[in-house]
Amino acid sequence: MTIEYATRYRPASRIPAEPGKPYFIEKGEGDRAHLFGDLITVYAGGEQTENTFNFFTVEGPKGDLIPAHVHADTHEVFYVTQGAVRLFVEDTEGLQQEKLLTPGDFGFVPKNCAHAYRMERHHSQVVGVAAGPGGTFERFFENLGAPTQAHGLPHRPLIPEPHTFGTVPERYDVNFLPDHQWRTR
């Protein structure tokens, strides 16, 4: 059994809002949000780590490419635990790479590198960690998407209105690149 806290983001959360407090969260019981076709579960965020890193999972079905984006101040880790995820990355000199990641595979995206991903198999899952001097971006998921108490994937993909993509870069260090072209595939 885990304790529930009221936070400024949610009426009930299993993540304490203040830093320096140990806690435990049972599988899947973090702060959940639906975005695109995915379920994102945050287990630790900026509030708990004094804005040094976050820890989350992304679960999804085989689907479309998540839009290309860049984080100016945040490094991001992709560690696949289930299924297969294709990671697309472009470094600061314009070199593009793509790699199919399967369980146990790891991908690192430094700050200022454009990237995107696509779930290649149903029931794929990525463990994500993001860290950087500018803070963390985990609240982006529920602000562009929708907070949920559900444990499963959304019944229909939750695609934000195009104008909302421009509202997130300054608050969450997520800058979408709508005209970006991947030359790899």
Automatic annotation (TrEMBL):
Domain Cupin type-2 intervals: 60-119
Domain of life: Bacteria
One Pfam family this sequence matches: Cupin_2
Cross-referenced Gene3D superfamilies: Jelly Rolls (2.60.120.10)
Protein's name in the database: Cupin domain-containing protein
Organism: Streptomyces alboniger
